Amino acid sequence: MSDNDGQRFDRLPETDAERTVEGRASRKEVIDYFEDRFGIPPEAFADYTFWEKGAGKIWIYAGEAPTPIEIEAIGMTCLRTRQEHWKPTTDFVQRFGQHATDCVIELEREQARAFAAGEDQDLEWWDGDWGYLIAAHDVAGDLEPLGIGLYVHGELRSMVPKGRQRDI
């Protein structure tokens, strides 16, 4: 097995059988995760490649590139994998969350404002899964993803990064 190099991007292997770096997720695992957890169909990723830089920081890129590649960034970060529970990024959710059919919590206006401001809130009424959820709000008849939240013990914790939090 090769070592992970935090200074370069390596394209994710298609399957576990093609893995050359211990602990690295495969493209299949990433797509299966998004489908199993959020109901995002695999077809949503047909034109995208997945890359790892560092340990478990997964990036999504619309296109092809040589691998490995030593650059600062390629596409956008989409997922953190080398931890107990995989965590999607706010950028990913805002870009691909409209494809989600599962683990989407629809927030009312004031709840959406609190979420965007980075506030945690009690939401005992949610009867779906615990863990990471896509927080969304209806805007002019369309359900718009706001970001990723963590729901545990009746509380929705906003995972909106401090620099992205807004008073709306």
Can you offer a commentary on this structure?
The chain has two domains: 9-97; 103-164, Archaeosine Trna-guanine Transglycosylase, Chain: A, domain 4 (Roll). 16% of the residues lie in helices and 28% in strands. The protein has three helices and ten strands; from the N terminus they run E-H-E-E-E-E-H-E-H-E-E-E-E. The strands form two sheets. The chain has a five-stranded antiparallel β-sheet. Strands 6-8-9-10-7 form a five-stranded mixed β-sheet. A hairpin with a 2-residue loop joins strand 9 (142-152) and strand 10 (155-158). The radius of gyration is 17 Å and the shape is elongated. The model has no long low-confidence stretch (mean pLDDT 91). Pfam families: DUF7122 (PF23437).
